[in-house]
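Late entry, evening session. Most of the bench is empty. Finally got around to the prediction I had been postponing all week. Sequence below, unchanged from the version circulated by S.P.
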Amino acid sequence: MYEKIIEIKTKDKLNYVIEISPDDNKVFLSLNEQGYILTKENFLKLNEQNLLTLNNEKVKIFNLEDTISKARFTSEEKQIFISDQTKNIIGYNLDDNNLGEQNNKFNINIKNPKTWKFELNNEKGILATGGNNIFIYDYINNKILKEIENKNKFVYSFCFLSNNRLAVGNSNGSIYLYDIENNNQDNKTKIEEHCLLVRNLAYNKNGNILYSASDDLHINQIDINKLEVLFPLVGHKEPISDMIYNSKKNILITSSFDGTIKIWDIKGKSNCIDTLEASQKNPIWDISISQEGNLIYYTSSEGIGAFMLK
């Protein structure tokens, strides 16, 4: 069971994003248009007083034009990619002492509507983003590799299944699997089981199961080999805001605007084995889990916090 070990009210500061580095020793936290990288030790020592004094030599600071919406570390932690609500995605070189310099900044000209959603494939060094169409970006060589036409509604979520295979969730509830090498869309890989926007995707590589979370409150389990939708996971009372699969614990973690985080044991009947709550059930925006699965971090509409496995 997980127990709450930290909870801090952020008052008038918006805190949409929290992300743990691959080595579990760093935490990226966003407050309005500023992002901070803290050590795990310093993060767990935060309180409402020292949260307001983060602008010091102990943290790395990133200033964007608008409220930060998403962040991802590269696997070796050489870079972090951050998007804001102006729909820009900016790369920062974490080896650079001058963090005011933007490294690999790129603006992809996507026909409206644009999106701040993106996902990394660190093994291949590529990034997927898009709106009406999908763009594959080579972040090592700083160039767009290709644009893939998406004949559906607006793309809202991305998930790499392999170096060449990309799953996308659309605003109309459909999911498509793309071969990004051949730029093909196979109609047999179209999955239409949700009736509302597919907000999140997560992948269990060992079980070849793709999880899709929709605003219809269902979390579907999709057998990628058979292209069959298994029984859904149901329990949240509001749309699922974020979803992560952790391979170490073989659990699925979901957060929701209903103010809860749910832990799903997917080895058997995929039962919900734990429900964690923010104070006063404030809507939860974002979650991140350590590689070992012993720490879960979250941001809510009025605060940030963490739970530890006991």
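Two things to note before I forget:
The chain is about 0% helix and 50% strand.
The chain has one domain: 24-247.
Will write this up properly tomorrow.
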